[in-house]
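dumping the sequnces here before i forget
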Amino acid sequence: MKRFPVQCPSCEHSLDVKRLGCAHCGTEVEGRYPLPALTALSPEDQAFVCEFVKASGSLKEMASIMKISYPTVRNRLDDVISKLKIFPQEDTP
Amino acid sequence: MTSPKTNRVSQFLFHPFVRVAGAASLALGLAAILLAGLIGAGQGLHFDGVLDAHVGLKLPVWFSVAEGLLDWFSLAVVLYIVGRIISRTAFRAVDLLGTQAMARWPTVIVSLVCLLPGFHRFSDQLLKSVQKMAADPTRLALPPLGMDGAVFGLVTLTMLVCTVWMVALMWKSFSHCCNVRGGKAVAGFVVGLLIAEVLSKIGLGQLLKLL
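..and the predicted 3d for all of it:
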């Protein structure tokens, strides 16, 4: 599976979306759109955030779903938070 | 490359807290402390300090169990305070208390291996020899090794391995529950362990007064 690029391979700054297209009618829009902060996360972390939201932000429920302990879930969440914190603020919509 | 089965075994032995923490770990840990105390009491085995295990006088069962509880509580409370100081995350007391109790489960193995026939016999002989040598240092009077000596060696080695294993589990519990890593965390753990060792000895002194 191709990984969604979020960082410039040349200067390592975050990438913007330059062109968007409609798969239905083929319309294309060009501009400069910053990527949402969540795209900075790995697919695994994004899935974790989705599950976390679905579980109403309950660490206990997440632990029960993932069959891991409460501190393991909380540590994983801490990791995600620290990754989001280093994502450039001006790129966050 | 390690197989998933090896990973599971290694996780069970050295980092069970990835899967078990909170009330479940507290129940399992307290059961282990109780069991180690019950098995140890009958043979005069004492966990007389956070990291100590010694053979001595046969004392009431409640005393042996209380020793284990005192050791666990001293370290758990000290590490909780250390964690509050150095950790940047909001961790739960029940996770640290529970996993620290569970980290003491190798003491059950120590209690069981001490039941091996010959261990106490050789310990008694060794103690008498040391007493004789203390009275007359020119006389070297070590007991003959034989089968009892081999059992004694095996038990001593197992105790050593279990102590190292227990410390590794205690560290994992602290590091995982408080989400702390690096030099500051290691230093905090070592200082906490030393303070808890002293506290447990003071507590033990008070416990002895109740006998």
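Residues 16-208 of chain B form one domain.
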